[in-house]
Amino acid sequence: NSAKIGVDYLDARGFQNVNEITAETISDYVKTIYAHHEKSMAAILTTLRVFLRFPYLNRYTLEDLSLKVPKQKKYYYPAVPSVWKQEDVVHMLENVDRGNPTGKRDYAILLLVSRLGMRAGDLKSLKLTDLDWKSKTIVIRQGKTNNIVTYPILKDIGWALIDYLQNARPVSDSPCVFLRMNAPFEAFGRDANLHNIITKHTRNAGITVPRGKRRGLHSLRHTLASTLLERGTPLPVISEVLGHITSRSTALYCLLGIEGLKQCALDPEEVFRDASR
Fold first, then answer.
1. Is residue 250 in a domain?
2. Which of 77, 98, 204, 233 ranks highest by number of CB atoms within 10 Å?
3. How big is the chain by its Cα radius of gyration, in Å?
4. Does 182 share its domain with 93?
5. For this structure, is 218 an active site residue?
6. Where residue 257 falls among pLDDT bands split at 50, 70, 90?
7. In angstroms, rounded to a whole number, what is the distance separating the alpha carbons of residues 106 and 185?
């Protein structure tokens, strides 16, 4: 079927001999059929190469035109990150009950994620010695990247940490900042999932999660990145805030906004021209 499509194309344009086919002919053909056969392009291009290689191997042509067939670029379309409406983030934080020890702990955790973009793994391993109150910074070695990252202790985060440490954190020999609130009052295990924290407070705030949307702690990182992007913050700066090794991971957030997508737009003519070289 793929070969017939090619033959019909050549017949319709009056080609009588395989030697009349040029690289430009191949490029025009590919551009013509792409819109109608996008999903099967890989098979069509493979058949086209075989079709054009045959006359060369049998010395009917002097040039191997199969080498002029463009390679189909394979694109990976990652899932668009789930983000919150900013008012929902504020509403959830405002509704955390800080009148009890667990609420004080959870509030500090949620602030560190939503305001600084800290990963759950780094929250679980955060040490008391990582808090530099004199310089008002948090300095950690990220578990995922092994990079040293410095976060500012913003005013609201500072007061939330002080409230938790002075009035809620259980007495313990653990060096970790955040502990379980039930005996034996240990740090969260390596495999512990903090998802239940955000699930509980999302529910308590009466926030409805749309079907297909994720509302784990990581979604607060996505929301922070999206907010920074909307404010015109350069991707390298957002990468530094989120602790990404390169801007490549951060560029995923361009999928969240029209303006970001406009910056990523490609000229189809340019794509096909580059592919045929």
1. no
2. 98
3. 28
4. yes
5. yes
6. low
7. 15
Question: Please, are residues 187 and 178 in contact by the beta-carbon 8 Å criterion?
Answer: yes
**Judgement on whether residues 95 and 205 belong to the same structural domain of the protein:** yes
Please say if 144 is a catalytic residue.
yes
Q: What is the CA 57 to chain-centroid distance, rounded? A: 46
Q: Is 244 one of the annotated active-site residues of the chain?
A: yes
Residue type, 185: F
Residue 244 vs residues 124, 148, 153, 237: alpha-carbon distances, Å: 19, 11, 20, 10
- Per residue in 127-145, pLDDT (tens digit) is 999 999 999 999 998 887 7
> CATH no. for residue 105?
1.10.443.10
Q: Is 136 a catalytic residue?
A: no
Catalytic entry in 71, 127, 144, 248? 144
Choose, from 68, 119, 124, 169, the residue flagged as catalytic: 119
Question: Is residue 271 included in any domain, yes or no?
Answer: no
Note if the pTM is more than 0.85. no
Q: What is the pLDDT of residues 5-57, one digit of tens each?
A: 677 777 878 888 888 888 888 888 887 777 666 667 777 888 888 888 888 89
- How many domains, the chain? 2
Question: Is there a contact between 47 and 66 (Cβ–Cβ < 8 Å)?
Answer: no
Same domain, 20 and 113: no
CA dihedral 49, 52, 57, 63 (to 10 degrees): -110
Residue 243's pLDDT band (cuts 50, 70, 90): low
Q: Is 115 a catalytic residue?
A: no
For residue 202, CA distances in Å to 39, 171, 205, 222, 268 come to 40, 29, 5, 16, 44
104, 169, 221, 222: the catalytic one is 221
Which residues constitute the domain of residue 67? 2-72
253 catalytically annotated: yes
